[in-house]
Design goal:
By secondary structure, the chain is of the alpha+beta class. It has helices at about 5-15, 30-40, 65-75, 125-130, 150-160, 165-180, 220, 230-240, 260-270, 285-300, 315-330, 345-355, 365-375; strands at about 25, 40-45, 60, 80, 85, 90, 100-105, 110-120, 135-140, 185-195, 200-205, 205-210, 245, 250-255, 275-280, 305-310, 335-345, 360. The structure holds guanosine-5'-diphosphate and manganese (II) ion.
Length: about 375
């Protein structure tokens, strides 16, 4: 789960990281009032779950409260990487002498947290990674022992020469690791970590993603979830307890079981198609779940055919067939649907579906090939 910068900064503050104060506004007038309260120069910052806000015009310096209001009216409602800005953070503007990058994330390959630090932080860190990878140091952390003091110190010396800065950065790196592990993050990033002309090290941006599986034990973090900031399909899927991931293809997939869902997507690709989604309806034949699944799939305009692949075990195929028939009566679907059911009570299921006018199969190959053909010829 991604959280907003202002929320990530709250977690960083709790860990002791020096973070400037700030408040969130949803209207230009609120932004103006906050700027007036803070006094002096401020920064108005789009709060969206995506990076690159600065380059997209979503981070603006303002000399006065009136100017902050102007910036807020332009930034609120702006689209950045397909997401609409609903909130802005108003925070005192800092004078910047230098910008560094400090991040820690779970590295799938080494199955451990890995730090990445660079003295060349700021909006061009992706470019630094591409053209000048030596400017980024990576340090793998053994989760049994956590971040060791010498690791934090050596990363800090890679960022700064001045001992006073090294001392502050060593502390920040340790605090960042504490925030990362205490909140079960998959990513915690400060970019930029700035040095002010007065020689203070501060985090002026914060990006954090939380491992969804840990949210049950992190109620304060779960409360950060912003339903307005995530795609509607994801909210709907979570509310219906469906595992759903949107993809770029045109064959909508509705499958029971995560393993079968992945095998189905592989087979779609094998037959030359592209899956529009991963969707696991779980071990349920509850028609409400089938309706929710179909609503999510059909809301995606790129879907050109829908493929059901159900393996009946404890789940009975006739229950699923009834669920599909009920779902079809409730929603109007414009794209062709092909269905494969096999396992417990498959004969009854095929009867029900044929009676309702559906094309039903028992072979996985045949149904996937058909779904790919239908999508291609649409
Ligand atoms: P991002 O583009 O989404 O990563 O947003 P950031 O919060 O990192 O802001 C982008 C850039 O705006 C930073 O790298 C800074 O150069 C600049 N910026 C952000 N806040 C301030 C500030 O308080 N003072 C100054 N001078 N520049 C800032
Ligand atoms: Mn940034």
């Amino acid at each position: 789960m991604d959280i907003h910068e202002y929320q990530a900064k709250e977690l960083f503050r709790q860990a002791g990281i020096p973070v400037p104060p700030g408040e969130v506004a949803t209207t230009p007038e609120e932004a103006e009032a906050i700027a007036a309260r803070l006094g002096g120069k401020v920064v108005v910052k789009a709060q969206v779950h995506t990076g690159g806000r600065g380059k997209a015009g979503g981070v603006k310096l303002a000399d006065s409260a009136a100017e902050a209001k102007e910036h807020a009216s332009r930034i609120l409602g702006m689209e950045i990487n397909g997401l609409t800005v609903g909130k802005v953070l108003v925070t005192p503007a800092e004078d910047i002498a230098s910008e560094a990058y400090v991040g820690v994330l779970i590295d799938r390959k080494s199955q451990a947290p890995i730090f990445m630090v660079s003295p060349e932080g700021g909006v061009d860190i992706e470019e630094v990674a591409r053209v000048n990878p030596e400017a980024i140091r990576k340090v793998s952390i053994d989760p049994r022992y956590g971040l060791l003091p010498h690791q934090a110190y050596s990363m800090a010396t890679f960022l700064y020469e001045d001992p006073a800065l090294v001392k502050q950065a060593t502390k920040v790196i340790g605090q960042l690791y504490r925030a990362f592990s205490a909140n079960s993050c998959s990513l915690a990033e400060i970019n930029p970590l700035i040095v002010t002309p007065a020689g203070e090290v501060k985090a002026i941006d914060a990006k954090v993603s939380i491992d969804e599986s840990a949210l049950f034990r992190l109620p304060e973090v779960e409360a950060f979830r912003d339903l307005d900031a995530e795609p509607a399909s994801e909210t709907k899927a979570r509310e219906a307890s469906l595992s759903f991931v949107k993809l770029d293809g045109d064959v909508g997939c509705c499958v029971n079981g995560a393993g079968l869902a992945m095998a189905t997507m592989d087979l779609v690709k094998y037959y030359g198609g592209e899956p529009a989604n991963f969707l696991d309806i779980g071990g349920s034949s509850n028609p409400d779940k089938v309706v929710a699944a179909l609503e999510i799939i059909t809301a995606d305009p790129s879907v050109k055919s829908i493929l059901f692949n159900i393996f009946g075990g404890i789940t009975r195929c006739d229950d699923v067939a009834n669920g599909i028939v009920t779902a079809m009566k409730r929603i109007d679907i414009q794209v062709p649907i092909v269905i494969r059911l096999t396992g417990t009570n498959e004969e009854e299921a095929l009867e029900i579906l044929k009676g309702a006018g559906f094309e039903a199969y028992t072979s996985m190959d045949a149904v996937v090939e058909k779904a790919v053909q239908l999508a291609a010829s649409a």
